[in-house]
Amino acid sequence: MPLSTSKQITEQDIRSQDIFHKEWLYNNGVSKTSKMLKLTSTGLFERFMNAISPAKRTWNGHNSSGWKEDIISVNGFDERMQYGGEDCELGDRLVNNGLKPIQIRYSAICVHLHHSRDYKNQESIDKNKSIRKATQSNKVKHTSFGIEKP
Question: Are 132 and 89 contacting, i.e. CB atoms less than 8 angstroms apart?
């Protein structure tokens, strides 16, 4: 959502869950686009939209979830990683461990607040890509740099 909208959100807006209603979003600067279907689809239409979504079934941290025991089984996030891809690398290990992602982009309500990414830099992105490439090519299921350390 736009920075101007993100700055307007109050604790009461969150508690009342007004920020999940399209009228509130429109009245506070969010553009009217087809993306609003992700917040408003229900029933058969919701299932239909999930089925035809061109988005790949991937693990992306902004709106992903998993069972605690599955995340523990791969030892959680690889703590060597910084901003950029750490969520996807965790998802790669979950898939390597036999889990199959499902797509529920029209079922799970998510709004993303605008925020700066001052911590993002090319060095950490390159390092993360290298770790993720190794996870994918070597079919890594467990990291030694996660919840439990050797």
Answer: yes
